[in-house]
Structures are given as structure tokens and as C-alpha cells.
Design a protein that fits this description.
- The strands form three sheets. This protein has a six-stranded parallel beta sheet with strand order 4-3-1-2-11-12, sandwiched between helices.
- It is built from eleven helices and twelve strands.
- By secondary structure, it is α/β, with parallel strands linked by helices.
- The two termini are 18 Å apart.
- It folds into two domains: 145 residues, Rossmann fold, CATH 3.40.50; 119 residues, 3-Layer(aba) Sandwich (Rossmann fold), CATH 3.40.50.1860.
Length: 269
């Protein structure tokens, strides 16, 4: 029985690894749409159609529950997919919810009016599409007031990670952090709003400084998923675990192995 985890490329592996550590008894089927990565520079319609096709493929493979381990897909496609209707017995969830729960220190089911929270100045690092969607700010506004969010579109970072060029990725991270600090010199917290970015978490922290709390999504999403499956054990599905990609399996597997430092073999989706 497998839970589906979808990403445009390799970034969702940060969520997958955390989920595997938290839930060792659960099988996961990872789906990387590497042939169309990165999503962050695509139009909302493009992102929706690609995400929808991948999620339906995972559903058809027996994954009743699919996690969009991609902030761009969560921002541009999740709400529309849910509004157009999800097949009976199937679910698709995004990665914004656990992050905002942690930042605002209130549970998602808490529907009380927005209130002030401790963190006032937040830096958001995300893809151009996620920044343009303003989805993070919209969801945060339902739960908190008085929070200043300064978003920085981090062009090129996902491409460098997908190409395995970590030196270029680190240089781009430093450049984007410098650009953010010119707009918000003293952020209290920083959101790594793309699941690729935790692979560069040390670079972000070093550039931001030790006084900034950096929020990554892997552990937060894994904890939220564990809670969800405890409440909905029927959502484990009947599919088998593994790794799928729309790209070249050998190339994608080699890059995944480099990032996770363990052998990962992908199959063609």
C-alpha cells in the first residue's frame, strides 16, 4: 500500500525522506515530472494541467492519497483540482498547511479570527510562479494579522539543483538572499517555499545569519501526514512503492542518489 508523493522534479525527495523516517511502515510512490521541470517558470494553466495528469496517474496506480510535495503545484493547482471534484475515496493534499500551522502556532482546524503572532517579519523564498500566486500570503492572512511577508523569486535555483550544479545553486542562493535583505534587512523568519530549497538549507542559513529561523517543509509535512494517516488509516491505498519519472530514469536516479546519498533507482512513468 503506497502514498503518492508528487513533485516537478527532485525537490519532493526532501519531503519523501522525512516521511520515510517518520513512517517507516508506509510505502511511498514518488513521481517526478522531470521532463517538464522546473514548474516555477510555467503559466498557471500549464502547471495545473501537468499536475492534474500526474495526480490522476498516481491515483490510477493505487495511491488513494497524493501529496503535492511541490509548492508551485500546491499554489497553482491544488485548489482548482479540489474545486473541480476529486474521485470518491481519493485525496490530494498540498504542503502549505503544515508550514503555516508551524509559523502561526495554530492548528488548521482552528477557524477563529486571525490574530497577532510572535513573528512579524517573514522572508519567503520561492519560485517565480509561487511568488506570483500570492498563495502563501493569502493562506497566512486567514490565520494571522500584522505579519509582513517579503517574497523573493529565486530564479535559477531549481534548474541548478536539477542539473546537479550545487556550486551554482549556492551562488544563486547568496544572490537571492542579498536581494531580499535589501528589501527586508532584518527578517525574523525565512520560509523555504520550494521543496528543492531544503537541499540548500545550509546555504540559506549561512547567508541569512544565525539569528533568522529557517522553516523547511520536510519534517513539518511528515508530522502532518503521520497525524492525517492516524485519523484516516483507510487512505493508505493499494499501490506499490517506488520511484517514477517522466524524464530519463538513469539521469534522474543518479541525481537523486547524489542528493540523498543512497542508491535511488527510477523507472519510466
Amino acid at each position: 500500500m503506497a502514498v503518492g508523493i508528487f513533485d516537478s522534479g527532485l525537490g519532493g525527495l526532501t519531503v519523501l525522506e522525512a516521511a520515510q523516517k517518520r513512517l517507516p511502515e508506509v510505502e511511498f510512490l514518488y513521481y517526478a515530472d522531470s521532463a517538464h521541470a522546473p514548474y516555477g517558470v510555467r503559466t498557471p494553466e500549464d502547471i495545473f494541467q501537468l499536475t492534474r495528469a500526474a495526480v490522476h496517474d498516481l491515483w490510477n496506480r493505487g495511491c488513494d492519497l497524493v501529496i503535492l510535495a511541490c509548492n508551485t503545484a500546491s499554489a497553482a493547482a491544488l485548489r482548482r483540482m479540489q474545486e473541480e471534484g476529486v474521485p470518491p475515496g481519493k485525496r490530494v493534499l498540498g504542503v502549505f498547511v503544515p508550514l503555516i500551522e508551524a509559523l502561526t502556532e495554530r492548528q488548521w482546524g482552528d477557524n477563529s479570527p486571525p490574530r497577532e503572532v510572535e513573528v512579524k517579519n517573514v522572508a519567503l523564498f520561492a519560485t517565480p510562479a509561487t511568488v506570483a500566486s500570492r498563495a502563501f500570503q493569502r493562506e497566512l492572512a486567514f490565520r494571522a494579522i500584522g505579519v509582513d511577508v517579503e517574497a523573493q523569486a529565486c530564479g535559477g535555483v531549481v534548474d541548478a539543483i536539477e542539473e546537479g550544479d550545487l556550486i551554482l545553486a549556492e551562488a544563486l542562493v547568496r544572490s537571492h538572499v542579498d536581494a531580499l535583505k535589501r528589501k527586508m534587512p532584518s527578517p525574523q523568519a525565512a520560509i523555504l517555499g520550494c521543496t528543492h530549497y531544503p537541499l540548500m538549507a545550509e546555504a540559506f542559513q549561512d547567508a541569512l545569519g544565525p539569528e533568522v529561523t529557517v522553516y523547511s517543509q520536510g519534517d513539518l509535512v511528515a508530522a502532518s501526514l503521520a497525524d492525517y494517516l492516524q485519523r484516516h488509516p483507510n487512505m493508505l491505498g493499494a499501490g506499490k512503492g517506488g520511484y517514477l519519472t517522466t524524464g530519463k530514469p538513469a539521469t534522474v536516479g543518479s541525481r537523486a542518489t547524489q542528493f540523498l546519498r543512497r542508491k535511488i533507482e527510477f523507472q519510466a512513468a
